[in-house]
């Protein structure tokens, strides 16, 4: 950043107009003037002139909603299993980009240096200015069949994502979101022509805890239902935090809710490690993940994956055919050791195509592959 220019000033000077579909003018009864209702996330902020929404990065300037554009704060090429997507392009790399800001303020956020920028002075991740064309060219040059918006909350930077994804789709690249799920019907309609993969962090099943993180449980649950209705490919992650959301009761409620939406939704129960402002709870023990796995299976979910304790959960990281039980994808952590699927994801034993987004003749990955690659834009 240039000397004397704050991050807030820098970001405010590098924006783009908000999409018409994600903003509407409304009378502000408190001031008697017109304000802007932002529809990019579930907070639906009414933003007055000169003010910003909860996310801090979408703001009202002269009666126009200005939103982030023209930069990245995080950029990486690494295995798609790290997102994690296990039923989409297994064994392939994805290019991930992120911006700054979030509509939540989770105390254990593992991407807090980008998500909590403008909210926490310790969160420093300087933006790198670029354009959509260069991002897509970089993904193509790396042979990445997928581009994912992640690291911060992608819903609040949807205009920039769509600008990138529109070009990516024209190049045959599949696009995805890694999100907290605090969406609106309007933003999902806006991104649907360009986004096929959607991972939601379902952080628990306790509305009080959700409100402590900055969200509302019901809105996230409605988003998950709507994503399935709109035919996104959906995978769910629950970071299991000791003493916060690891009870049998809460894990059962999550699993039963997901099964009520679709038994084919992959559920990743992943291990917590102390981070950011939540340093008191211990690391999640493997026994808790195995308990979550069993709970998910009892609820009827066909695909449950313990995560973040690679090699410690037996063969539960693998994907099996839901019809005959044949091992289709053998994994260790983020890496695919062997992909036995036939053309278009067909089981080689019974011929069934499990639910997912598969490639014809997808390549397998060996244990030595998948090292993150630097990306220059």
Low-confidence stretches: 365-377
Main pleated sheet: 8 strands, mixed
Decide which structural class fits the backbone: alpha/beta
Give me the count of strands.
19
What attributes characterize this protein structure?
three-stranded antiparallel beta sheet; alpha/beta; TIM Barrel; 377 residues
Summarize the helices and strands and which ones pair or pack.
Elements: H1 7-12, E1 15-17, E2 23-28, E3 33-38, E4 46-47, E5 59-61, E6 64-68, E7 71-72, E8 74-79, E9 93-98, H2 112-115, E10 128-129, H3 132-141, E11 146-149, H4 158-170, E12 174-179, H5 185-191, E13 197-201, H6 207-213, H7 217-229, E14 233-240, H8 248-261, E15 267-271, H9 286-298, E16 304-307, E17 319-320, E18 327-332, E19 335-339
Parallel strand pairs: 9-11, 11-12, 12-13, 13-14, 14-15, 15-16
Antiparallel strand pairs: 1-6, 2-3, 3-4, 5-6, 7-10, 8-9, 17-18, 18-19
What this model shows, in words?
- This protein has three domains: 7-68, no CATH class; 71-314, Aldolase class I (TIM Barrel, Alpha-Beta Barrel), CATH 3.20.20; 318-367, no CATH class.
- A hairpin with a 7-residue loop joins strand 3 and strand 4 (46-47).
- The chain has an eight-stranded mixed sheet. The chain has a three-stranded antiparallel sheet with strand order 1-6-5, with no helix packed on it.
- 23% of the residues lie in helices and 23% in strands.
- It has 377 residues and is an alpha/beta fold.
- Residues 365-377 have low confidence and may be disordered.
- The protein has helices spanning 7-12, 112-115, 132-141, 158-170, 185-191, 207-213, 217-229, 248-261, 286-298; strands spanning 15-17, 23-28, 33-38, 46-47, 59-61, 64-68, 71-72, 74-79, 93-98, 128-129, 146-149, 174-179, 197-201, 233-240, 267-271, 304-307, 319-320, 327-332, 335-339.
- Helix 3 (132-141) packs across helix 4 and helix 8 packs across helix 9 (286-298).
- The chain starts with 6 loop residues before the first helix and ends in a 38-residue tail after the last strand.
């Amino acid at each position: 950043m240039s000397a004397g220019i704050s991050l807030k000033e820098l970001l405010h000077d590098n924006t783009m107009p908000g999409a018409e579909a994600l903003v509407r003018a409304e009378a502000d009864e408190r001031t008697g003037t017109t304000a802007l209702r932002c529809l990019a996330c579930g907070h639906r902020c009414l933003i007055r002139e000169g003010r910003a929404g909860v996310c801090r990065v979408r703001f009202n300037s002269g009666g126009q909603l200005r939103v982030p554009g023209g930069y990245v704060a995080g950029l990486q090429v690494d295995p798609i299993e790290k997102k994690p997507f296990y039923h989409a392009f297994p064994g392939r790399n994805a290019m991930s980009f992120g911006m700054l800001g979030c509509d939540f303020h989770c105390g254990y956020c593992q991407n807090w240096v980008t998500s909590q920028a403008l909210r926490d002075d310790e969160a420093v991740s300087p933006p790198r200015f670029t354009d959509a064309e260069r991002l897509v060219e970089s993904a193509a040059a790396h042979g990445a069949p997928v581009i994912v918006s992640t690291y911060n909350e992608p819903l609040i930077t949807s205009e920039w994502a769509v600008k990138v994804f529109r070009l990516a789709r024209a190049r045959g690249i599949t696009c995805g979101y890694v999100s907290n799920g605090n969406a609106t019907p309007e933003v999902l309609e806006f991104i649907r022509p360009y986004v096929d993969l959607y991972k939601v962090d379902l952080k628990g099943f306790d509305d009080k805890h959700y409100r402590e993180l900055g969200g509302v449980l019901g809105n996230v649950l409605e988003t998950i239902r709507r994503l399935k209705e709109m035919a996104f490919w959906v995978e769910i992650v629950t970071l299991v935090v000791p003493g916060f959301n690891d009870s049998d009761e809460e894990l059962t409620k999550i699993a039963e809710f997901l099964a009520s939406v679709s038994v084919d939704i992959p559920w990743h129960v992943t291990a917590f490690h102390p981070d950011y402002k939540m340093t008191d709870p211990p690391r999640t023990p493997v026994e808790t993940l195995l308990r979550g796995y069993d709970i998910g299976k009892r609820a009827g979910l066909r695909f449950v994956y313990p995560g973040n304790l690679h090699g410690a959960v037996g063969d539960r990281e693998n994907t099996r055919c839901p019809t005959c039980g044949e091992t289709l994808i053998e994994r260790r952590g983020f890496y695919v050791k062997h992909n036995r699927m036939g053309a278009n994801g067909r089981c080689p034993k019974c011929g069934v195509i499990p639910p997912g987004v598969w490639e014809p003749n997808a390549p397998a990955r060996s244990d030595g592959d998948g090292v993150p690659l630097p990306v220059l834009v």
